[in-house]
Design a protein that fits this description.
The chain is of the alpha/beta class. It has helices at residues 21-33, 42-51, 54-63, 84-92, 96-103, 123-134, 138-149, 151-195, 197-204, 286-295, 299-308, 315-322, 326-338, 357-372; strands at residues 3-6, 15-17, 208-213, 223-228, 234-237, 247-252, 260-262, 270-274, 313-314, 342-347, 350-355. The longest helix has 45 residues, at 151-195.
Length: 373
């Protein structure tokens, strides 16, 4: 599975790396509401939540449908401003129907890339949004009803909420991390100019790469695509918004392990990526994680791993210990080795196999990072 952005024919200058105060606030609010996704931020989450005034904490809980399970599209601007006020001013320019439709683009629904009417004008879409909100709790349902019945009033309320967040905690955060994010965006922009998009994507995340797809006729070069290694399928084009073609990359210091991708119908694709730091592990390919889990799904291979975790063993030793033939052991060993779970070395005339404990120890976190990505 993967998400794909078709960028065929897109000028390089239309690929933009830039920080966004609103997107960073959205990432911070998500971390506050889902600390389990961000174990490295537990200290900051605990201190910030403890310092919030009761009124602000209550309002954040009321509106958290916009950022708790996944990020609302309104929090990922394609043309960010230098300040939160500038981002909010641009948000204010969106008409109510488009704003409300974008606000509730918060699920992993296959309908996401299809043209859907605004819930302000379509009864079926309005019912779907209300049902989705009701499943998240009574306060979130009440917030949704307010958005649907009084969008103008709710938009004023929401802007005030974000401004109060800036005063309470986000202003200090942005003064600290905004410089780092701007530096990362400048570095990626320069790398794009000097080395090209393929190398820039690789430097941005190992879960991103450039792919040239054949046209199928044998007579052309085909399409050029940005591929996002995520447990979801989505397809869009850099020309989704004909008035503003391109792709926007937003760095975040709060985002890991998420790689957030907004690509609703008619909207310019936006991707928010975590800024690399030495303490962050490189993401494992989802196909490799799946291969490792499948390799461990066989009961005999689990027993072999138990023995191989305690030290190196030869094929003959394993066959004798488990009462199976050497060819059977070899087939199981080959599966585990292909998945990268064991190491093999030669000692004289013996070939010894041993479980790679570091790889196995990371498997749980690799899986968790993959499903959260």
């Amino acid at each position: 599975m993967a998400n794909v952005i078709d960028i065929t024919g897109l000028p390089p200058e239309r690929v933009v790396f830039t920080p966004s105060p609103l997107a960073e606030l959205g990432a911070a609010l998500h971390a506050l509401s889902e600390p389990g996704h961000h174990p490295g931020l537990h200290g900051w989450v605990t201190a910030t939540n403890a310092a919030l005034k009761t009124d602000l904490a209550d309002r954040l809980c009321e509106a958290d449908i916009l950022w708790r399970s996944s990020r609302s599209d309104i929090l990922l601007p394609a043309r960010p401003g230098a300040t939160l006020a500038e981002d909010l001013d641009e948000l204010d320019k969106i008409d109510d129907e488009r704003f409300v439709a974008a606000a509730f683009e918060i699920t992993c629904s296959p309908r996401y890339t299809l043209p859907t009417p605004s819930p302000l004008v379509d009864a079926g879409e309005r019912a779907r949004i209300r049902e989705m909100a009701a499943a998240r709790g009574p306060r979130q349902a009440a917030f949704t009803d307010r958005m649907l019945t009084d969008p103008d009033g709710l938009r004023v309320w929401l802007r005030r909420l974000f401004e109060d967040c800036e005063e309470a905690f986000f202003g200090d955060i942005w003064r600290r991390v905004g410089i780092q994010l701007a530096a990362d965006a400048r570095h990626k922009t320069e790398l794009l100019r000097r080395k090209g998009l393929a190398e820039t994507l690789s430097a941005t995340s190992r879960a991103l790469w450039l792919e040239d797809a054949p046209d199928g006729s044998g007579g052309g070069s085909g399409s050029t695509r940005i591929v996002l290694d995520k447990l979801a399928q989505g397809r869009t084009t850099a020309f989704a918004d004909p008035a503003d073609p391109g792709v926007t990359f937003l760095p975040t210091s709060f985002g890991w392990p998420h790689l957030v991708f907004a690509h609703a119908q008619g909207w310019r694709p936006v991707l928010q990526y975590p800024v690399a730091s030495p303490e962050l592990p490189a993401p494992a390919a989802l196909e490799l994680v799946q291969q490792r889990l499948e390799a461990l799904g066989h009961p005999m291979r689990m027993q072999l791993c138990r023995t191989l975790s305690r030290g190196p063993h030869s094929t003959g030793e394993l066959a004798e210990a488990f009462g199976i033939t050497s060819p059977e052991v070899s087939r199981h060993i080959a599966t585990l080795k292909k998945a990268g779970l064991i190491q093999t070395r030669r000692r004289g005339r013996y070939v010894l196999h041993q479980l790679d404990l570091q790889v196995v120890a990371r498997l749980g976190s690799d899986f968790l990072e993959g499903v959260l990505r």
